[in-house]
């Protein structure tokens, strides 16, 4: 969340930055500052009353020592005590309201983030590779059905729409991709592998920004107040919550495979067809925890690590930067990596690499001890390395051959055990 001191000192600057995200946030800043002003006034009043009560206590003691009547001062002291209790209750309520408001205000975009209200303002930074020339390309649903790679109809029978069952060589390909991605990021890119829980508690979801704003998009287990994770970012980033790290530990780099669960599976349309947008999908996530001085460079290297996946697989892609109106709730800067899918006839996001600055760290009380001996908030970053379902789509659609088979990139051959997918 944002630093309340920043809102006090530069409210108009914060409002201007938040205006890129859409209407309404300026009013929330004003409300936060009004609540904060009242809370601080309450604290000042309480401290004054406490001082008065201490003075009265001394005067009462002096009167009692002299065997004189102290009842009037005692009555006054009781009135002060009652007012102090009321102020304390009001202060607690104001503090809770202030925190709720701060948790509901998004991060401010970095100064270099492009201006714009939606995805149409996102500039393309670079492209890589060439799209294959395929006559009448099939989409991944046609390919997968023909080759028996997955079965959404039977998955719907089991769980409802928005789910899929991978079968046979289709399941083996999913497993091969997971192993390839984890090996690449741990062996070549220096990340530490982690296998976190898939269910997390409310403070964990709050720490990375999913709560309170996005609770309706989550799958919750009401009886235990736990949530199925929407991404491995949530448990992995919270791994060091409420800790003070040493500067020489940073940057920390973690890679984790998990399934991801999201209630919102997209509006009706082409993006809901097949594997492109589902309630459950697999992903290998990359998380970094670093210092403020290094976070900008770490975002570039994080993005390069995700791009390397597509380069090794020979898949054409582009990198775009999200404008202020399209950037995620907690991020201050984001690069999206989109892969070309000829059967789909468009670009599919397979990775979103974001720098959150100290926004998540403040929510999680995640700090490090600097060379000055003081505790400072860490900066957190994460990115998909990559999302498996859409990577799967791109592999099928780019690798389709005239004979109906699907050519697999050479780097996957040892993991999959064959050079192509064929009809069984």
Plain-language structure description:
- The chain is of the alpha+beta class and 424 residues long.
- The chain folds into two domains: 4-104, Serine-tRNA synthetase, tRNA binding domain (Helix Hairpins); 119-421, BirA Bifunctional Protein, domain 2, CATH 3.30.930.
- The chain is 42% helix and 20% strand.
- The protein has 13 helices and 16 strands.
- An eight-stranded mixed sheet has the order 1-9-10-11-14-8-7-2.
- α2 (11-19) packs antiparallel against α3 (25-65) and α3 (25-65) packs antiparallel against α4 (71-104).
- The radius of gyration is 27 Å and the shape is elongated.
- The two termini are 53 Å apart.
- Residues 266-270 have low confidence and may be disordered.
Topology (elements, then pairings):
Elements: H1 4-9, H2 11-19, H3 25-65, H4 71-104, E1 124-128, H5 140-147, H6 152-159, H7 169-188, E2 192-194, E3 199-201, H8 202-207, E4 220-221, E5 226-228, H9 233-237, E6 244-246, E7 252-261, E8 280-290, H10 295-313, E9 317-321, E10 333-341, E11 346-355, H11 359-364, E12 367-369, E13 375-377, E14 379-387, H12 388-399, E15 406-407, H13 413-416, E16 420-421
Parallel strand pairs: 2-7, 6-12
Antiparallel strand pairs: 1-9, 3-5, 4-5, 7-8, 8-14, 9-10, 10-11, 11-14, 12-13, 15-16
Helix pairs in contact: 2-3, 3-4
């Amino acid at each position: 969340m944002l630093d309340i001191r920043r809102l006090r000192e530069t409210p108009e600057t914060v409002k201007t930055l938040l205006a890129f995200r859409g209407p309404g946030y300026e009013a929330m800043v004003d409300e936060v500052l009004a609540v904060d002003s009242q809370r601080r006034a309450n604290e000042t009043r309480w401290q004054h009353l406490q001082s008065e009560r201490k003075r009265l206590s001394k005067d009462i003691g002096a009167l009692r020592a002299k065997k004189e009547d102290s009842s009037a001062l005692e009555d006054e002291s009781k009135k002060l005590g009652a007012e102090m209790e009321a102020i304390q209750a009001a202060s607690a309520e104001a503090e809770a309201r202030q925190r709720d408001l701060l948790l509901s205000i998004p991060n401010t975009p970095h100064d270099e983030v492009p201006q714009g209200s939606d995805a149409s303002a996102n500039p393309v930074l670079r492209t890589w590779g060439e799209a294959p020339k395929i006559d009448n390309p099939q989409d991944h649903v046609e390919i997968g059905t023909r080759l028996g790679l997955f079965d959404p109809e039977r998955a719907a029978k089991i769980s409802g729409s928005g789910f899929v069952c991978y079968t046979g060589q289709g399941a083996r390909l999913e497993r091969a991709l997971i192993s390839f991605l984890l090996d690449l990021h741990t062996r070549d890119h220096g990340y530490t592998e982690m296998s976190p829980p898939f269910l997390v508690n409310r403070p964990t979801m709050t720490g990375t920004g999913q709560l309170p704003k996005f609770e309706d998009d989550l799958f919750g287990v009401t009886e235990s107040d736990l949530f199925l994770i929407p991404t491995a970012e949530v448990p992995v980033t919270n791994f060091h919550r409420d800790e003070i790290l040493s500067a020489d530990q940073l940057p920390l780099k973690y890679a984790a495979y998990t399934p991801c669960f999201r209630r919102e599976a997209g509006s009706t349309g082409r993006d809901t067809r097949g594997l492109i947008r589902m309630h459950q999908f697999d992903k290998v996530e990359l998380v970094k925890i670093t210092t403020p001085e290094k976070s900008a460079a770490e975002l570039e290297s994080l993005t390069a690590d995700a791009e390397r996946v597509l380069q090794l697989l020979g898949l054409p892609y582009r990198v775009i930067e999200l404008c202020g109106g399209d950037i995620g709730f907690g991020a201050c800067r984001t690069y999206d990596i989109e892969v070309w899918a000829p059967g789909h006839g468009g670009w599919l996001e397979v990775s979103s690499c974001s720098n959150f600055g100290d926004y998540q760290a403040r929510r999680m009380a995640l700090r490090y001890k600097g060379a000055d001996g003081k505790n400072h908030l860490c900066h957190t970053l994460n990115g998909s390395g990559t999302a498996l379902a859409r990577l799967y789509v791109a592999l099928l659609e780019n690798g389709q051959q005239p004979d109906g088979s699907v050519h697999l990139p050479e780097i996957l051959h040892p993991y999959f055990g064959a050079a192509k997918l064929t009809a069984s």
